[in-house]
Amino acid sequence: MLGDLILRRWRAVVLAIGVLALIGCASTVQEWVKPGAAHISRLAVLPFENQTSALRAGQAVSDLLVSEILATGTTPVMDPSEVGDLLRRESLDPADAGRLPSAQRLGRILQVSHVLQGAVTEYRYKPGLSETPAVGVTARLVDVATGEVVWTASHARLGSSWIREDGLGRVAQRVAHDMAAHLTGALADARAR
User: Fold this and answer.
1) Does 25 score more than 60 pLDDT?
2) Average of per-residue pLDDT across 156-174
3) What domains can you pick out in the chain, each with its CATH number?
């Protein structure tokens, strides 16, 4: 009898820890892709606009996205330093993503088929019993030939702060990995339709 009570309490504790672990790694994804979207022959990833108080969050996320897109092995990506150099030659400040001209115009300057641009909407530790890392990113892919948005997504993720230690960098890496996988997968599916 006492053994059954202890076993039931133990199971309840294990179940509670499991639920808390799942909640601690919560993520939200919204995504849309245009059916029949054109193949990406060359992609430029612009520095993302930083809408947070964290320094260089936009640049950090766009750098992670470049790495993750290249890791898929499906999409040729223009070197980010080359993107910055070409923009500066046009008297455009790549660090001021909110003031850059249209993606279509930038794509023509950069001589790419598609431009990926976006914003970091959250990049912080949420206060509470323990600080939880939180990252939110929105992105859109523009076909330079048509000027149309052919893919858009919004990803947000919370890390864990007391079951497994996550930092902002790790959570941002996961968001970038998920976005790159969704981008390349969605465009492959869109071309198949």
Assistant:
1) no
2) 84
3) 26-192 (3.40.50.10610)
